[in-house]
Each structure stands twice: as structure tokens, then as C-alpha cells.
Amino acid sequence: MTSNTPSLPLSLPSAVRAALLSTALGLGTLPLAAQAAATPGAQAAASRYDVAAGPLGEALNQFARQAGITLAATPAQTQGKQSPGLHGTFSVAQGLNALLAGSGLQASSSDGTSFVVQDTQDQAMALPSTDVRGFALGNALGSMDGYNATHSQIATKTSTALLETSQSVSVVTRQQMDDQGSQTVAQTMRYTPGVLTNPYGATHRYDYVAMRGFNDGSVDNIYIDGLKSMGDSGTYSTMQIDPYFLERVDILKGPSSVLYGRSSPGGLVALTSKKPLYEAYHEIQATVGTQGQHGVGFDFSGPVDDDKRIAYRVTGLTHDSDTQFDHNEEKRYAIAPTLSIDFDEDTSLTLQAYLQHDPEGGYHGGLPADGVLHPRNGQRISEHYFEGEPGIDHYSRDQQSFGYQFEHRFNDVFTARQNFRYLDSKVDLDQVYGYGYTSATSNELNRYYSGASERLHSFIIDNMLQAEYFTGAAKHTTLLGVDYQRRKTVVDWTSGSLAPIDAFNPVYGNSAISYYSPTSYLRRLQQTGVYLQDLIELDKWRFSLGVRQDWVKTSDENRIAEYNRPVGTTISDQRTKLTSRAGVLYLFDNGLAPYISYSESFNPNSYSDASGNPLPPTDGKQWEAGLKYQPPGSENLYTASVFRIDQENLATKLPQENFYRAVGAVRSQGVELEAHLQVTDNLKLLGSYTFTDLKYSKSMVSTLSTADNIIENKGNSPTQAPRQMASMWADYKFSSGALDGLRLGAGVRYVGYSWADAENTEKVPAYTLYDASVGYDLGKLGLKGLDLRINANNVTNEHYVATCASLNFCYVGEERNVAATLSYQF
Fold first, then answer.
1. Residue 53: which pLDDT band, with cuts at 50, 70 and 90?
2. How far apart are CA 770 and CA 792, in angstroms?
3. Four-CA torsion 267, 271, 272, 273, nearest 10 degrees
4. What GO molecular-function term can you cite, just one (predicted)?
5. Which has the closest alpha carbon to 353: 419, 414, 418, 422?
6. How far apart are CA 782 and CA 265, in angstroms?
7. Domain-terminating residue out of 165, 184, 216
């Protein structure tokens, strides 16, 4: 059967794709440059500045915003230095000289609008490092210090101050990942509001992240270095990055299609990988822990040439561990070589590769509520229980990605960037899982078999042209972009049934499988998008406007006869979608910044219903209002937001089914609070609170037969959506006395109740978990470069159920895990 959806004229998207590689270069001569060129002269005139005293980095940040200049420096140059502030009327040069007085730094410029900070001892302007470029194009100084970050690119694809971003953005720094001992990307966000990081319990196979209540069972909201991860969420082929390879994790809450195209309405997670450093850096580390965990990692970086124009970084690790579930292991081998080349001060290229082999993927399954949430026949199922077959169950994944990030500054107005990545993966799966009891009183679980052999190939490219210019008193940062995605997945699936197994006293060895008819598909996706964004600074006002047009085509071609469909029959779907975003924010002198924004999302479904027809795309719309507060002279940030998201046509499926359903309309509304504090030089604090009211606003329509079946669930809450969450983490470092070199960390995470069924008849109880860490700088004992860290998650070994997708699939939470890491830097 073929789709009767009308074909789109392909001339426009085809032309866009053909022009993709040349778009950035071809727009470098727009007449806008002439208009902007007349403005810099005005910057030489004296203006009044009010810059609060405090850390030098933040003082320069404030000055750059007020002066409307491009200011570039490395965080290392300003670290630990203070500024007396600046109050009065000065020229730009006078203001910079006053701020930098006594710091050993000076600012140089060739045009009066772009400044580079350098040591006063330097006789010539040094080439900017990758750290400088990352924030210089955003017109301000950016840095990460402890748990605090000043800027992010996730919401605007330009380096924008978090305080000036009219949407909720959270940042997890490298320091936070290390202090909390994060073992997966999902775990890095355990202390982030609005994010549920364990909707499927103690599995580590995929980085499931449910945001603002939305959990569609996929990991389609993960981005890597600005580009979608490009796995296939409708299959088992999903890319996963180990957190050891990351520099930071940025979390954007709410719809974001205006810059990224197809995406979840709950938000997205942007991973930033480690980049080459222009100073020598070498680290090796070894980890041992509970459940037989052991592994080693290394991270080497530095310049290749004497002029420091070329730098490399090679990061790698091995990991091997049992799991809390019987007869399951996790193994990983990964390496990421990276090379950065500064051709000149205006042109740079970073080449990246990531190769990962996971010969064992651990456990991934759920158990009935009857026996997990409450006793069945007087017994509870063990948190170590494995319902599969040791001789059958197996999961392996191989993934290789290669890409680059290119950047060229034409002049003071125009900058072009192009990001590209190709992904190739291979996944093989054999899994036996339980689904319900054999009778109303039996202790035996029905068992089924799933097998998969999948091969995925995909690539994505994003072209951006950025222009910075003035129109009167308004400063603009305009971004024009064109991106293209293409993905092909070949999937061969088998299924069957096995003999049942006792849920409380399992006996393995009944491994004979009664096979059902196999299925085989060739799945394709293409997306072309054109987007335009304008960020406007007018006095203390910040405006964000964006619009995007997408063309998306999906298809499923069956490779063997099935469901009365001949071999080669293709079901296809083509969609176009216009999305937009708008936001306004006001910066008060006292550090308060109220904002309001509107944003949209869409996500064409690659899923099919019971009849094999593609489901309609999901559409999301969000209104958000919030208040951010950054005390003058501080990098501490407090945020509060209220939001409402309306989404239609969300796709869902039961684990034992091979088709999806549309679940009508869902409304999510709530409140999020977050604080990142560097209280003293020794004490860091994180705090968050989330209230999410997620309801079906339209009843589910299920196409289980030729006639639609209406399931009346309007007003009910979807499963796996806790109503409340809260967390707090504190880290203290001793810097004097007998305890000098000791670090102590402690955290608490609370997850409120959720529902185990769509009818809201059974609750999953709330739970509270405690985490802790102890670290010591062994250099204080004469062992220079050595550091020891011990992390414990779920210290009290709380037994809990993370969530339930249905009454037949509840997911056991992760038990206590302790790991010790010894690292050596040289």
C-alpha cells in the first residue's frame, strides 16, 4: 500500500540543498555591511557606563554589552582577578583601560569595535584560542567557573548571555559532572529542573530524557556540537555519547523548531564535546566501583606547532561492569580524536571523530506493577530480577561519526559557520522480556522474544551566516541559516514467544523460541530547513525574533511481504511546516531580568499505526514567562519560569506492539525554579524545584481496528510524568589547615508520585534519594598531579520504582552505586 499524500514540488528544497555549501560564502557582500560600517565611528564617542565592581570577567562582560563592542579574552586571563567597576563618562578605550588597570592585561583593537585582551608583556597580538572564538562572536566575554556558566549557544545558535536569553536554559559544567560522578549523559542532568532523567529506571543503554513532562520513549532530543544526533528513534539505533568526552551539557526547555527543525516540545539537550587546547594538557584516570565496575580513561591535548596554530586532543576510555540485574553486563570502548587549525585570526577549522564499540548494553526491561509496586501472592519481585534468558539476551552497538566545524570572519559584520557530521552505526539485539502473568493467580510471566539487526547511515549539515550591525540605536545580531538532514536505516526484526518464567524464583534454560513472521524495512528521512533569526539590543531591552520553513519526507519500504503488502511497497509522508519564535526581555540595573516568550515545535512521525499508515506530525506551542536574577558583580544566577505547552498527536506504543498510536492532545503547564551559586571561593550550591501539571486535553484516538476507538482519558495525566521534583547539591572545598585539599559533596533528589496507567487508577509512589562525594588532592601529600574522588549515588540504597509506562511495565530504580576514581594530570 502506498500513501496517497500529494507530492510536494521538490524544486525549492532541492535548490536549497544544492546551494547549501555555498550559502555562507555567497552572502558575504550583502549591502548591509555598508550600513553597519558607518556605525563604528560612533563607538569612539564618550558614553556613560555603570559597571558594578566584582570579578573581572563579569565586569568586562557588562562593559561589552553597554558599549556594543566585540570583546575577546580567555577565561584563564581573568580567573581570580577583581575589578573596581566603572561609573562615569568614558570613551571605549578609556573604559577598558580603567577596568584592566593593575590586572596585567591590556585591550588592543585595529578598528575600534573589535578588541582582544592580552598580557601586557606580549609584544604582538596572539592568535585567539578556541575558547575566545566561542564567545567573541556573541559580542561578550563568556566563561565557566565551577558550576556557573555565563553564556550558552543552545537557544540562539550564537553566544548569548544566560541572563539575556528569553527562554529557560540550564548548563551543566564539566566540574559538576566530575563532582557528581555522572556515568551517563542522562545522569548529568539529575539536578536540573524540569528534567526526569530515569523514566526507564536503572538502564544505561540509552540517554532517555523526559522534559516538562513529555516522554515519547525516544532520545530524539539529544544534540551534539550543535547538530542533531541523527539516530533513528523508531528503531534500536540510537547514538549515545559517554560523558567523559564532554565539556558541558546545555538544556533548553520548551519548543525549539525555529532553529533546529523537527524536535520535541519539551526541549532539547545540547552536548558540547571536548575541544583541543592550545596549552599542553594530559590526564589519565582509573575507576573501580560496585557491581564489578572498572575502567580507564585518558585525555591528551596541546599545540602541534610552535606558533600554536594547530592543536590536537585525543580522549579515550574503556569501561566494563556488571549491572544490578542478574546475568547482564555493560562494556564500552571509545576514542575521540580532534584537530583544530587556525589558518589565521579570522578562519578556523575543527575536525572531529568519535568511535565507540559497546559489545554489551546491559539490561533494558520492565516488570508488572503487581509484584513491583505492591506484593503479589505475598511476594515482591527482586530489584535484581532478570526475566530473560542468559543464553539469548544480547545487545551490541558500533557507532562511528566524523565531522567538522568551520568558521570564517569576513569582516567586522559578517561571520560564516558550517557544521557537518556523518554517522554510521550497527546494532544487533536479542532480548527476551516478560509481559503480564499467565493467569490471575499465577506467579509465572508470559515471555516474548525480540530480535533486531539494524544498519544506519546519516548525515547532517548546517550553514550559518551571522551579521552584527546597528540600525540607529539598536544593535542587531542576525542569523541566516540553511540545514539539511538525511538518514537511512535498514532494519530486520524477528519476534516470537518462549516458555513462561516464575517472577520470584526464576529457572533459566527454557530457551526454545516459537518464531512469528519476520519484518524488514528500509526507512528514510530527509529534512531541509531555512531559518532567520534577529537578536536586537535596544538600551536595556532584548528582543528575539525567529522564523523557519521546513520540508520533511519520511518513507518506509518493506523488504519482505507482510500484512498483504507486496515486497517493495513504500509508505511515505511529506510535510512542510512554518514555525516561529518571539521573545522580549528587560535588563534592570539591579540584576533582575523579566521576560516573556512564545515558541513552536513540530516533529513529523516516522511511526505507523496498526494499519501501516504514518501518524500525523506532532505540533507544540509554548508560552513562557520568567524572571532571572544575577546580582551585579556576580556570576550567580537565579531563574524562575512559568510555562504552558499544548501538543497534539503525540505518538506512543506499548512494548509488545509493533505499531504506534496518536494520544490526542496533551497540555503541560507548570513552574520551574533554579539557582546556581558560588557562595564563597570554597562553597558551591545548586538548587531546583519543578511543578508540572500534565493532562490529556483531548481524548486518545486509537486505530486498533477499521473503526477508530475513542479512549476517554481527557483530564487524566499521562504515565511517567511526576507532578513535583526538587533537588539540592552542595560542594565544599577545604583550602587551609589539616583538611587542606579535601572536598565534600552531598545532594538530595526528590521525585513526586506519578501514574502507572492512563486511567490514573494506580500511583507510583514518590521517592527521595541521597548522593555524596569525597575528594582529595593528593598533591597536598607530595603526589603532584594525583587526585582521588569517591562518588556514591543513592547512599541509603532506597528501593524504589522510577516510573511505570503501564501496569505491565514498571521500571526498577537504580540501587546504591559507589565508584572511586584516581586521576593523574601531568
1. confident
2. 9
3. -170
4. siderophore uptake transmembrane transporter activity
5. 422
6. 52
7. 165
Amino acid identity, residue 140? Answer: A
What are the beta bridge partners of residue 478?
Answer: 467, 534
Spatial distance between the Cα atoms of 699 and 679, rounded to a whole number of angstroms: 48
Q: What is the largest CA-CA distance in the chain?
A: 85
> Which ranges in 410-553 belong to alpha helices (H)?
none
Among the listed residues 592, 529, 411, 475, the one whose alpha carbon sits nearest the alpha carbon of residue 33: 411
Domain that holds residue 159: 45-165
Residues 140 and 279 in one domain: no
In this structure, the answer to whether residues 580 and 699 fall within a common structural domain is yes
Q: What CATH number is associated with residue 418?
A: 2.40.170.20
Where are the extended beta strands (E) located within 109-259?
114-119, 144-145, 148-149, 151-152, 160-161, 169-173, 195-196, 210-211, 222-224, 227-228, 246-253
Q: Is residue 119 part of a domain?
A: yes
pLDDT value, residue 699: 66
Domain end among 165, 194, 226: 165
**Are residues 286 and 142 part of one domain?**
no
Own/partner pairs, 319-322, CB within 8 angstroms, 24+ separation: 319/242, 319/287, 319/293, 319/295, 320/292, 320/293, 320/294, 320/295, 321/289, 321/291, 321/292, 321/293, 321/294, 321/295, 322/291, 322/292, 322/293
For residues 161 and 279, membership in a common domain is answered with no
For range 209-220, the mean pLDDT:
81
> Does residue 146 share a domain with residue 276?
no
Each residue of 518-559: pLDDT tens digit?
Answer: 999 999 999 999 999 999 999 999 999 999 999 999 888 889
Is 299 contained in some domain? yes
Angstrom distance (rounded) from CA 18 to CA 10: 12
* DSSP secondary structure code for residue 608 in this structure: B
Domain count, the chain: 2
Residue 761 inside a domain? The answer is yes
CB neighbour burial string for 435-459, b if at least 16 within 10 angstroms, e if fewer: bbbeeeeebbbbbbbbbbbbebebb
Which grid coordinates belong to 327?
A: 546475568
CA nearest to 330, candidates 288, 292, 383: 292
Asked whether residue 632 carries a pLDDT value surpassing 60, the answer given is yes
Q: What string of DSSP letters covers 87-152?
A: EEEE-HHHHHHHHHTTTTEEEE-SSSSEEEEEETT-SSPPPP-HHHHHHHTTTS---EETTEESEE
What are the phi and psi torsion angles at 45 (to 5°)? -70, 155
Better pLDDT: 58 or 435: 435
Supply the DSSP string of 21-57, one letter for each residue.
GGHHHHTTT-THHHHHHTSHHHHTS-EEEEE-SEEHH
Q: Are 690 and 701 a contacting pair, CB within 8 Å?
A: no
Whether residues 272 and 156 share a domain: the answer is: no
Closest CA to 281 of 264, 298, 269: 298
How far is CA 818 from each of CA 277, 295, 496, 607, rounded to the nearest angstrom? 32, 14, 38, 40
Q: Domain containing 155 — which CATH number?
A: 3.55.50.30
Pick from 815, 814, 817, 812: which is nearest to 381 by CA? 812
pLDDT in tens, 267-326: 999 999 999 999 999 999 999 999 999 999 999 999 999 989 999 999 999 999 999 999
Let me know if residue 586 belongs to a domain. Answer: yes
Task: Judge if 429 and 306 occupy the same domain.
Answer: yes
Say whether both 154 and 285 belong to one domain: no
Q: Are 274 and 313 in contact (CB under 8 A)?
A: yes
Rounded Cα gap, residues 675 and 686, in angstroms: 6
Task: Report the C-alpha dihedral over residues 583, 586, 587, 590, rounded to 10 degrees.
Answer: -130
Cell of 496: 516470537
CA distances from 668 to 211, 213, 603, 692 (A): 10, 7, 17, 7
How far is 541 from 251, CA to CA, in rounded Å? Answer: 24
